[in-house]
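User: Batch of two.

Assistant: Item 1 of 2:
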Amino acid sequence: MNKAPDTPRAGRREWIGLAVLALPCLLYSMDMTVLNLAVPALSADLRPTSSQLLWIVDIYGFFVAGALITMGTLGDRIGRRKLLLIGATAFGLASIFAAFASSAEMLILARAVLGLSAATLAPSTLSLLRNMFHDPQERTFAIGVWISAFSAGGAIGPVVGGVLLAYFWWGSVFLIAVPVMLLLLAVAPFLLPEFRDPDAGRLDIRSAALSIAAVLAVIFGIKRLAEYGIGVEPFLYIIAGLLIGYVFFRRQKTLKDPLIDVRLFRRPAFSAALATNLFTVFVAFGSFFFVAQYLQLVLGLSPLKAGLVSLPSSLAFIIGSTLTQKLTTRARPPVIMACGLFIAALGFLAQSWAAEVQSVTAMVLTFTLFSLGLAPVFTLTTDLIVGSVPPERAGAAAAMSETGAELGGALGVAVLGSIVTALYRRSMEADALAGIPAGMADTARDTLGGALAVATELPAVLGETLLVTAREAFTNGLVLASLGSAVIAILTAVLVLGIFRGSNTPDAENGTDKPIPAPAE
């Protein structure tokens, strides 16, 4: 990775500011994981319907995904630090509102506001890093720390949540955010510089509405596909979202001040980095989701123990992210990304074996291996995305990066989930459920969790037979999904080597990639 001779290096203020920027990233991912542990307690207290419970869990992610592009470009216009502070204030207030919600409707509203607030955090923090760290080597390290903060939040969320729920009411899991956001509000004005695009025009409200509607429709359709399988309704939502997205992109080409400059996609480095990031998140999120279920429902670990045994993989991810900058001094970024994806593929292959032998230790080792392999890929693709655009467009680029990640995660859970579910239900046919009443058999055939619940209501021998059959069926699905993840990781590695062959990491500042000229009026 080459840098221009006059590229300014970061000082003490920038490095302390990096630590400040890690705080909202930590909370962003914690809030996506900590609620899962609180679901049983809040269900007993608020008594939500099944539909309301789904919205309590899902609406946070929906609003994060839908609002990212709007918030990223808004930061370019009004100032990234200002948007970060506005979002932090809203996040803290919404957390208090959620903690003391007295009805399911109140909690759904609070989670929606939390999602909108969280959508300001990732693009604001990442675009601030783009402007604080001009040296490519330093920026790669800073982005590694930024990504590590998300990983750390996801790792400690279940642990902290488990401890709080052991001593306090379910609302306490939301109050974790309040002191952290207060600290951010106190120190950010002094440690974080302000940046905005001096030539940015007004925010186009119609474009913002189109982008939110497009992403929400696609994400909702994918979510329905994951929950209910292949059907007309999920595809209608996805198609509607894609059509709205098409209208959105056509509109951007006609505007003097577009919400996003669609010509960014003409840059091979930018488009390839987005695609690589999406496929990497695809395999990572799908595996995280199903390994968590496997540890609890097949191996019988409690949520807290499952979170604890997952800590080594999170530590590996943090180490891999922070060491990426060191690796770039020894090899070109495309080679590092390809090697990381090949290592991840080995981890997924080993995971398919570990699932068969049902060993906690083996699962932890394979989980750690593919996390270590994927960490440099996340760091370098993120660096490519924000580093290949001019600094004034960093907010929009960061938002597109995060939106791609959200889509990749949703697709990973949906596609790999469909594989696991289809194989599970095929294995749980009439012969496997012989002797079980029809209504209970339908529940057991639907999900592994349903089978475990049904087993407790059956005679001991029949219940034990059902448990063995259901766990074996889920394991077979996980094995196939792991093999599929390995194939996708290998194909993505080949894609990286093919597209980036013979080129260095693009950087808009060092002259290897020229800034896009302003749109013609």
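Item 2 of 2:
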Amino acid sequence: MILTKEKGHYSSIGFKCGLEIHQRLSTEHKLFCSCTAKLTDNMPYTSIERSQRAVAGELGMVDRSTSFESSRERTFVYNVFRESTCLVDIDEEPPHEANPEAIGIALRVAASMDCRIPDEIEPMRKEVVDGSDPSAFQRSMIVGYNGNLDANGRGILISSIFLEEESSGIEDAKDNVAVYNVDRLGIPLIEIDTAPVIESPQDAKEVAMKIGLLLRLTGHAQRGIGSIRQDVNVSIAGGSRVEIKGLQELAMMDEVIEHEVGRQLKLLEIKKELGGRKASAGNAVELTHLFKGSKAKIVGDAVKSGGVVLGMALKNFKGLLGYEIDANRRLGSEISDYAKKAGVRGIIHSDEKLDGYGFDDSEISAVSRELGLKENDAFIMIAAKRDVCERAMLFARQRAEMAKDGVPPETRAANSKDPTTRFMRPLPGGSRMYPETDSKPIAVDKALRSEADKGRVDIGRITKELEARIKNKQISDQMLWSPELQLFNRICDAHRELSPQFVASVLVEKFKELKRSGVDVDDIDDDVIAYIFEKYSSKGITKNGVEELLKSVPKYAGQVDKLIASKKLERMDYSKVRDLVKKLGIKDRSEIMRRIMSEHRLAVDGEELNRAIGEYIG
């Protein structure tokens, strides 16, 4: 559902939106240990297995998201790596002293956003409920608050900036077992939270882009898939706050928010309808005996394998389970998402075309009788092993009851193929933060404050300096917003004789062109790209040779040298270029150029060829 993009419309429905931007930092070591902060391609050498259960926090309350995840009874397997995992990561050793490099970077970011910086940084523990941390908590510390970011001439309140540990990377998840790689765990991560002052979906996208730009301009932002993540908090009048996690594609942020607003509006319509009907959810009833020998595969297979079929009446829900709330999603989809968290493939409900499952009319009539359904009632069924089925039905019932309240406060995941979202878990409350007793507070002295102020990122100044360096506004604007900016500065600083405009045009325009032609330039390591420009700077290859090497996507510097030799990309000496010109024995500049470049395009420098022709023809 796409709504009007005008800000006035969103204001009229009580739209509130805030962002949480998470950026992995490029540092030598992890935040609370001396393991490398760089991911490797090596295989894990062992694994550990754990489970978790909900316990009361410091205030004596159990967080609702923690309680929900604990009830799923999942097992977590953690892959451990030699170079990038230690006892701190798997919670078998207290944390080491916090990484001073990461603290310095975080304070620079806080100063760049005019944040108030605390006199003392207090490490805290934040409960992690999805199993991505073997300790079930994440170390986090606030480094700035009450800041401001200028976005399109409007001040955006930055409510808080945190420095915290990155989570483990998910490797696999099926049934009730999740497998994580612990090499990513503990890498320094900065989280920037805005106040809920975003005025529209497009506004959210623009603010996120500005924050991302500032982080890249620090020169300490990691690159690559997953290194930056955007979470969005959205609510409308009469609804609840919903957090959407894992927005990898910034280009889709506005669409995702538009769809979420549409979803919430539809859920409020359903709430109103259910209230008028005085709807309610019944209790689970076993229906296994009705489906012995059933031709409906989903229930028949469950019964044959010793499982059960449970049903539940939904009084006065008829027609609403199939009510569309988003693209290809209905209220039944929302209920199914909850049930799936117990390990089932989904639910069957009465607003679907049940003959598509293979049910016959007599079976559906029997279900109606067993559940005591009346004309305006609906039902859902779940088939699985008994313990799984009972847990799934409990979750499904909870979601059906929530429909009477409108929009449940949830954490949802952005789908990768479209702008829709899916349920992850209930929205966490305020009971999951408590002090980190194994790490001492960090005093923010005058020296740290001074370094933070000196390292402020001034986007306006950097923009002007970039334009002066590249001498082409269009390319410099592209370079400013490009993730390759850090690499651009590295190459140009190392090779002052290179044309910054040439380097920038390759990194933004040529890269874009190569991507369109199917070349995976994102897979080329920065060190390799820098080495290619080094070869060009030392006159080992030509401009055309640079492009030819990038097309081959070399994996390491040694491979670059091998490609130069195998593809005959060595730059031809100027004396040899002059000999080629003389050997042709003609005086037509364009014809000389055509003949030589047709045969030696990759090895002859165009400027040198022009000079040699000029010397020959006078």
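The CA atoms of residues 130 and 259 lie 25 Å apart.
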